[in-house]
Amino acid sequence: MRGRPASGFTLIELLVAISLMALMAALAWRGLDGMTRAQTQMRQQADDVLALQAGLVQWGADLDALAVQPKTSSLDWDGRALRLLRHDPAGAAQGLRVVAWTRRGAATDGVWLRWLSPPLSTHGELQQAWQKAAFWAQNPSDEDRQREVQIVPLARWQIFFYRGDTWTNPLSSEGSATGGIPVAPIAGFAAGAGSAAVPALPDGVRLVLALSPGQAISGTLTRDWMRADLGGSK
Which of these, 178, 144, 151, lies nearest to 163 by C-alpha position? Predict the structure, then answer.
């Protein structure tokens, strides 16, 4: 009697099936890798947006907390850094702080930075921190770098002051006359031994940021801040 033929797959059929499974696995891996890269990119973009928002909020908070001392500069722009004197975030009882903002890096590849001094309780400490903020913007020491916070990549930035009902270059002498509303010394600080000829505070500050390409938000961003004591006339 003739035997029944054996059933099963031939070698060629097995090779074809294995090849198809390998191809499907490769396509699935590429799809998963693409999804992972997209999630990573979206997460990085979200972090960039949050960092920019936090920086702008902090910028406004620093200016809102501006502290005015007789015979002492409270706000200054030297072309490289914006320095300001503000109340301590923890409360008036903690004294004052010097804050500085600058951009550091190459012509088109830099980063926006913020520096914060320790709490200040005397006029001598205030003057020392004011000078250190300027040195930090030019040639920071390792100690100064520990007190800085990187905000976002920044290609360029500009600062304008609102004086005489117009936006002007802060380095211009126009509209930078001394004077202003007389103020009493803040508790714990002497009036200072410097000259009384301190430039008056501007009515507003305009911040213009040229954000670096490749970020979640690119292009030019402008933020205006006006002094709260001006009322609604400006």
Answer: 178
Phi first, then psi, for residue 177 (nearest 5°) are: -65, 155
pTM score, whole prediction: 0.75
Q: Is 69 exposed, middle or buried (0-12, 13-18, 19+ CB in 10 A)?
A: buried
Question: Hey, what amino acid is at 97?
Answer: R
What are the tens digits of pLDDT across the range 183-193? 344 555 554 54
| The one-letter amino acid at 148 | E
Backbone dihedral region of 109: left (phi > 0), alpha (psi from -120 to 50 degrees) or beta? beta
CA distance 145 to 116: 10
Cα-to-chain-centroid distance, residue 109: 15
d(CA 190, CA 184): 10
In whole angstroms, give the CA distance from residue 19 to residue 21: 5
Residues 129 and 120 sit within 8 Å (Cβ to Cβ): yes
Question: What is the distance between the alpha carbons of residues 117 and 17, in angstroms, rounded to a whole number?
Answer: 69
* Cα–Cα distance measured from residue 210 to residue 108, given in angstroms and rounded to the nearest whole number: 10
DSSP letter for 231, please.
Answer: T
Q: Distance between CA 68 and CA 221 in Å, rounded? A: 28
| Residue 194 exposed, middle or buried by CB count within 10 Å (0-12, 13-18, 19+) | middle
192 neighbors 72 (Cβ within 8 angstroms) = yes
Cα(100)–Cα(113) distance, integer angstroms? 8
Residues of the chain with pLDDT > 70, as a percent, come to 79
